[in-house]
Amino acid sequence: MRVFVVGGSGFLGREVCRRAVAAGRQVVGTFHSQEIAVPGVAAYRLDVTDRAAVRALVAQVRPDAVVSTPYRYDAWTVTADGAANVAVAAAEVGARLVHLSSDALHAGRPSPYLDDDVPTPIHAYGAAKAAAETAVRAVDPGAALVRTSLILGEGSKQIQLCRDALDGRATLFTDETRCPVDVTDLADAVLELACSSYAGLLNVAGPDTVSRAELGLLVARRFGLDAAALKTTTGAAAGVVRPTEVRLDCTRATGLLRTRLRGVRELLVP
After folding, report:
1. How far apart are CA 183 and CA 261, in angstroms?
2. Residue 173 scores a pLDDT above 90
3. How far is Cα 120 from Cα 71, in angstroms, rounded to an integer?
């Protein structure tokens, strides 16, 4: 099986490449500026906003499955248009498509979000992820669209943000809750879906719900850092518009996947 990972130099993309190589897959990955440092991966530079270039490379590689992870927080053309370009290219060669989406397309509410809940974005990045989903589903109704949450693991930006807050260089919100997931668990789930016929939306995240501030305390405990130094605030006090309580109900994924999605407390508490 030939797996084509778009965004293979990203945090999740690299892990998908590693796990796919370890499983004996033939792996091709793309990067934009930072090269992919994963042995066994054929790497190509690609600008996902260039539809002709995306189509040409996918046609050249002719993958069995495409894992689409491209995003940039402040760039609609990468996050939304890039996802559409990948979907078109994958459909043209008949490749199985797994598209990575995000819980950032929800506004937040007290009750958990189900897999098929309609997006309610309240900031530009969430709107871009929602638009990406719409494009992917229109182009390829058989694609799997994975909504996930904060991704943890060695080199995770989320862990580094917590360490920065514990060192006084950043601030964590007490009113922004998520369901963090381990990068290896997520990568395994994505590859499992690439070999399946599942179509549509699927929440894939950890079972534990924590605020960003609570995540900071868990990081402090995990690495033996001074929790008293943690800087926290609320989104309202900071004057920012961000999703608040976002819990993903992953009952469907738990019943469907062999991959066990571990909770953040299992991952971080020694």
Report:
1. 10
2. yes
3. 19
CA–CA distance, 96 with 197 (Å, rounded to integer) = 8
CA distance 256 to 165: 37
Token pair belonging to 148: 């996930």
C-alpha distances out from residue 96 to 93, 139, 179, 255, Å: 9, 12, 27, 21
Q: Which residues contact 134 (CB under 8 A, 6 or more apart)?
A: none
Q: What is the distance between the alpha carbons of residues 88 and 32, in angstroms, rounded to a whole number?
A: 19
- Token digits for 44? 């190509």
Single-letter amino acid code for the residue at 148: T
Amino acid at 52: A
**Residue in 186, 112, 120, 174 with CA at minimum distance from that of residue 149:** 186
Place of tokens 């490749």: 95
Mean pLDDT score, 206-234 = 95
Whole-number percent of the chain with pLDDT over 90: 90
pLDDT in tens, 222-233: 999 999 999 999
Give the three-state DSSP class for 266.
Answer: helix
Residue type, 21: V
CA 141 to chain centre: 20
The predicted-structure confidence for 6-24, as pLDDT tens digits, reads as follows: 999 999 999 999 999 999 9
State if pTM tops 0.70. Answer: yes
